[in-house]
Amino acid sequence: MRCDMKEIGYQIVYSGRKTLSLQVEETGELLVRAPYFVSKREIEAFVLKHQDWILRQKERLQAKKELPEPKEADLLRLQADLQQILSHYAPKMGVTYSAFKLTSAKKRLGSCQPKSGRLCFSKDLWAYPEHLLEYVAVHELAHLKYPNHAPAFHAFVRSFLPDADDRRKELRNFSFDAAENSFERSRM
User: Fold this and answer.
1) Which residues pair with 120 in a beta bridge?
2) Beta-carbon neighbour count of residue 38 at 10 Å?
3) Domain boundary assignment for the chain
4) Three-class SS state of 170
């Protein structure tokens, strides 16, 4: 399908679902998940309607691929910054974490195991601005109290970061600009 001077190819996956959905894979391939009863014309209209979102996702994916490997100093700084953020917020939030570690995760910037209190953070966070790193850390700490994303979870996060919704939105749209490869996160 052509739209706005760019070709958008996609694969349709039919199933017993009730709604249409789009998914951009790590490979850049677009999957359209559709109920059996939806026509190809309806699918094409759905893709066309969401072309801006699709192109943004593909651009983000490309920018993520261009993220350079962190140097040892970057990871040490990231670890120190996370330690400082976690030590600052955990007592205020009334939560305790047992440990945290940096991982090579590419799909998730952070994860939490509420039962063990372990937190994991992607090494890719080295390239994110301080306020987004803070949001990811507070988000994961909040999971120690609320293991899901229910409204109470988001309200809890906002009670510590009043602009959490803006940060979450910025995080979704963040991409590393390879042309400005001179990223420096200010020390906390």
Assistant:
1) 101, 111
2) 17
3) 2-65, 72-180
4) helix
Report the 10 Å Cβ neighbour count for 126: 24
CB 185, CB 132: distance < 8 Å: no
Residue whose entry in the numeric block shows the structure tokens 């920018």: 63
Could you identify the residue written with the tokens 């979102």? 53
Tokens matching residue 53: 């979102």
- For residues 64 and 176, the answer to whether their CB atoms sit within 8 Å is yes
CB-CB contact of 35 with 14 (8 Å): yes
Residues 6+ apart with CB under 8 A from 3: 47, 48, 51
Which amino acid would we find at residue 95? V
Half-sphere exposure of 176 (CA within 13 A, CB side): 21
Residues forming beta bridges with residue 99, ordered by sequence position: 118
pLDDT in tens, the chain (188 residues): 544 435 678 999 999 999 999 988 878 889 999 999 999 999 999 999 999 888 888 877 776 666 778 899 999 999 999 999 999 999 999 999 999 999 988 778 999 999 999 999 999 999 899 999 999 999 999 999 999 999 999 999 999 999 999 999 988 877 665 334 434 433 33
Strands (E), the chain: 2-3, 6-7, 10-15, 21-24, 30-35, 99-103, 110-113, 118-122
CATH topology of domain 72-180: Zincin-like (3.30.2010)
